[in-house]
What does this fold into?
Amino acid sequence: MRGDGMITAGIDVGSTTTKAVLLGKDGIYSYSVQATGIDIPEATEQVLGESLAQANLSFEDIAGIVSTGYGRISIPFSSQTITEITCNAAGVHHLFPNATLVVDIGGQDSKAIKMDKKGRVRQFAMNDKCAAGTGKFLEVAAQTLRVDVEELGKTSLESKNKITISNTCTVFAQSEIVSLIARKTEKEDIAAALHESIGSRIYGLINSVYPEPKAEIVLTGGVARNIAIVKLLERMTGRMVMVPENPQIVTALGAAILARKVN
Ligand code: ADP
It folds into this structure.
């Protein structure tokens, strides 16, 4: 076994993407992100295989594996499963030791987590019942507007005229977008209104965990890569928003950290 028995893996099976992180005693060795698709065991084997190949390691070098995320129970080779709230908090605490407020916006859920300075979860609020306020809402909107979801945030920042989207429901918002397009409304203005809509959902989640007045927000999940969401949350909450270098793998990183304690 290489890595002095210190190499652990965290696997986060999200509704949209599956992530693996390999952690050694000096930090992250490698990671991989892939679409989850319909075959969860296959997606997890792929991300783990790719991470091992990148780090030039083999499965036998891993001392422990923790799996998390909505599909965590479908992973046959993990030592333990832990909820994504606990794993996300552990990952954030590792990267930002003073953080007490986390917002995670993924493909089909969003959550606000309040923690203490030791990274222990004190309270959380989660929206996993409805696509409004999640990455899925932005994906559907981007498709309807014929803009790449990766570009939707930047497009919205070009808006010159303020309009509102009255429907927060993804399906109804989609038909509202279609009629706005038919009325020749600029796509930049529609994109900005869509971001306002998702922002107000997230703002509500944040307030429901009663954060400390001055607590900064650490924003994680794939949607943290959307610059307009970052700016919007800063404006709406009056708080500083910090985004880790790779916000999508923070929960998998937390799982790999917790795997050190499992073994
Ligand atoms: P989950 O963990 O729930 O599977 P992720 O954290 O991987 O989801 O987030 C997926 C979402 O992130 C997508 O729905 C998309 O809206 C958003 N996303 C991913 N990459 C980018 C990017 N480069 N720019 C903007 N948004 C992104």
Summary: The chain has a mean pLDDT of 94. The longest strand covers residues 27-35.
